[in-house]
Design brief:
This protein is an alpha/beta fold and about 700 residues long. It contains 16 helices and 36 strands. The strands form ten sheets. The chain has a six-stranded mixed sheet. It has a six-stranded mixed sheet with strand order 15-12-14-13-17-16, with no helix packed on it. Strand 2 and strand 3 form a beta hairpin. The longest helix has 19 residues. It starts with 5 loop residues before the first strand and ends in a 6-residue tail after the last strand. The relative contact order is 0.08.
Length: about 700
């Protein structure tokens, strides 16, 4: 027996009126068994949907309607926007705030308005208008410090999907979401109890709305599409027919029911919610050309290199559930939602006496004391009569009849009563239930690197375990015939390997699983064997030495032979050569051989890249402006990083030598002074940017 009688698929649009002639990238509606329909604007399409669904219901027919846009945003956004994690609260918010007419709408300005209320820049981006809009970046790379995941869970595990934050440009879906949710909100209200929305509600009502994505069946659709067909029209027709076919053969129920892991982020109908695999978009191999720079680029500015890395990388590791005691330092893979409120009940903030605010008067107060007391963990079981007070201690749940507490030091106390002066405000010294965080609210966002204070919040909100990313395995390999381990009687021609122990400890300090790959002589076959073995046991490989283009730069040569080398010459001092590539699908960062250059490149480039590979958010180091305690004339053309530390006067001084081999300068320093790309003359007292090593996570 089928669940539904009528099957509708809708391809929505975020743009303006498209005119009378049928066009692609417009609104198309397909009904199983009927020809697809074109609508020139949203108003006409919405009116048709209301009429058609009403007709079907008048005939006692059950309707399944799919819409080709996201029904919700990534975790945390709903709570920020509306104060509730309920996705329908977001629908209502957009219904209230979206202004829509056939020839204009406010979607870009509204997105900018939302961005203003968030830290950083974003998350919404893309502007198809000629005028610039404050707080709405035209490019996704211009965003920073985004507090929400870039994609929903369904999009992270479904190839080819786009982020709901993108409002314009190729593949943009964000405009359809903003302009579609108000229509869904009105449709849901119009049919009230007859309507449910999957997967937020059970798919049992006479009208069921769900999210579709025709590209799931792109191969099948292509086989049935004729040269003169408008693809959008063919897609909605196919999906409507597909839903009917699934209902008739009994697989529709399997797709709609028994889904225990569907969240308030929503889900795309037809996608199996199996855990992400190593081949999914959230974890797995990178493309060989992921590090490729545009043609003709020879010297890469630091900011351009960072932006390119940010756009090229994604998470390389899976996820696992760990007890709270083991979660510190790990990357949260899924947003943590509070199981219960903090505090869970109204309680006292002080030691004192509790009573009802209704008995407060302008003058001094005298209240009789009742027997008993309320203490933390020992709730008072009775009711405090109006006009009476009870002894209460810090953290105690407020008894019935108590909403205000006076401090004990502000009272004169006898065995039978308390007296206190005028001026106490109603509800003083009383904490509300959930005033910190309410049950169901976002406690911690996905991508958060968990700190002790985050563990405290998770514990307080009743989360005994968390879903975290597996530890990123960072392999460290040194190269060079001159290298050896520290030992006695080593000739001056040999060099003790300083880079490998330094980088291994950096990786561990950042919370990764550091894998010691040893060191390799300048022999390509030996190095190849080392890289082959590393690729089997590491998620990313850091090498030092051999990253330039000389005769003995075998890291670069091997990556080039494998067809996966991108030899970046960064406009940076120290650390100009940086070889980026893939070895058997594993990213390789070929760092300079000089220890200072290797260290600086690791902090500036490897740290934010490793964060993304580990599933965390890209983070730029925070610096601050301080007076210089040095003189320097800087030439134009390169970003420079100087080993530095603050003196007793709060001015920043730099190490006496800028040589890349002076490791003592790294030990002496407590941070870096960052000098911009252009020409600069610095005198004592001039402002410079100082970044402590702690702001690089060290």
């Amino acid at each position: 027996m089928t669940e539904f009688n009528t099957y509708i698929a809708v391809d929505w649009s975020g743009g303006n009126d498209r005119g009378a002639s049928p066009k692609k990238d417009a609104i198309w509606i397909g009904v199983a068994g009927e020809d697809p329909r074109y609508f020139r604007n949203r108003g006409l399409a919405e009116a048709w949907l209301n009429t058609r669904i009403s007709q079907e219901r008048d005939a006692d027919k059950r309707v399944l309607a799919g819409f080709d846009f996201a029904f919700a945003y990534p975790d945390g956004f709903a709570n920020h926007l509306t104060g509730s994690p309920d996705p329908f609260a977001v629908w209502n918010w957009f219904e209230t705030h979206v202004e829509d007419a056939p020839d204009r709408n406010n979607r870009f300005d509204l997105a900018a308005q939302i961005n203003v209320g968030l830290p950083g820049v974003g998350p919404f981006w893309g502007n198809a208008l000629k005028r610039d809009i404050d707080h709405l970046p035209r490019k996704g790379l211009d965003r920073r410090d985004i507090p929400f995941p870039e994609k929903r869970a369904i999009e992270r595990r479904t190839k080819g999907t786009f982020s709901t934050w993108q409002l314009s440009g190729a593949g943009a879906v964000g405009s359809q979401v903003i302009m579609g949710l108000p229509m869904l909100s009105r449709l849901r209200k119009a049919f009230a109890a007859e309507c449910t929305v999957w997967p937020f509600e059970t798919a049992l009502a006479p009208l069921t709305l769900l999210e579709i994505w025709p590209s799931l069946w792109a191969g099948e659709i292509a086989k049935t599409t004729k040269p003169d067909d408008i693809t959008d029209a063919r897609q909605v027709q196919f999906v409507a027919e597909k839903m009917r076919e699934m209902d008739q053969n009994g697989t529709l129920g399997e797709a709609l029911f028994n889904r225990e892991d569907l969240t308030s982020e929503g889900w795309i109908f037809g996608v199996n919610p199996a855990p992400a695999t190593e081949n999914s978009e959230s974890a797995g191999k990178l493309k060989n050309d992921c590090f490729a720079l545009p043609q003709g680029v020879h010297w890469t500015p630091v900011d351009d290199a960072l932006a390119h890395l940010r756009s090229s990388l994604r998470c390389m590791v899976g996820s696992q559930t760990v007890p709270l005691a083991q979660a510190c330092g790990r990357v949260l893979s899924d947003a943590a939602i509070a199981n219960r409120a903090n505090p869970p009940a109204p309680n006292s903030a002080v030691d004192g006496y509790g009573f009802s605010a209704s008995c407060l008067s302008p003058g001094s107060m005298t209240l009789p004391l009742i027997e008993g007391r309320a203490a933390a963990g020992q709730a008072f079981q009775g009711v405090v009569p109006e006009g009476s007070a009870i002894r209460i201690l810090t953290g105690a749940v407020l008894p019935d009849g108590v909403d205000t507490v006076v401090l004990e030091e502000d009272c004169e106390v006898t065995e039978t009563e308390i007296r206190f002066s005028a001026g106490l405000k109603p509800f003083s010294n009383a904490r509300k239930a959930g005033e910190d965080i309410k049950a169901g609210e976002l406690a911690l966002p996905a991508g958060q690197v968990l700190r002790p204070q985050d563990i405290a919040l998770a514990a307080a909100t009743g989360l005994p375990e968390l879903q975290v990313r597996e530890k990123l395995r960072v392999g460290v390999l040194s190269t060079g015939d001159e290298l050896t381990e520290p030992e006695h009687n080593v000739p001056p021609s040999r060099t003790f390997d300083a880079n490998r122990p330094m980088l291994l400890n950096v990786a561990e300090k950042w919370g990764y699983a550091a894998v010691d790959l040893g060191y390799s002589a300048d022999d390509r076959e030996t190095l190849k064997q080392k890289l082959d073995a590393a690729a089997k046991g590491c998620d990313v490989i850091l090498t030092s030495g051999g990253a330039s283009a000389g005769d003995e730069d075998h890291v670069s040569a091997l990556l080039k032979d494998a067809g996966a080398l991108n030899h970046w010459r960064i406009a940076l001092k120290p650390g100009r050569p940086l070889a980026l590539g893939l070895w058997n699908g594993v990213p390789v960062f070929g760092l300079p051989g000089n220890p200072v250059a290797a260290f600086v490149c690791t902090l500036v480039f490897a740290r934010p890249a490793l964060q993304v590979l580990a599933g965390a958010n890209w983070t730029a180091p925070t610096g601050f402006t301080v007076p210089a305690a040095f003189n320097k004339r800087k030439k134009p053309g390169r970003r420079e990083y100087l080993r530095a530390r603050l003196n007793d006067q709060g001015h920043v001084e730099v190490f006496s030598s800028e040589g890349s081999g002076r490791i003592s300068g790294l030990s002496w320093a407590e941070g870096l002074v960052e000098l911009p790309d252009g020409e600069l003359q610095i005198n004592p007292g001039d402002p410079v940017r100082y970044i402590p090593f702690g702001n690089f996570g060290l």
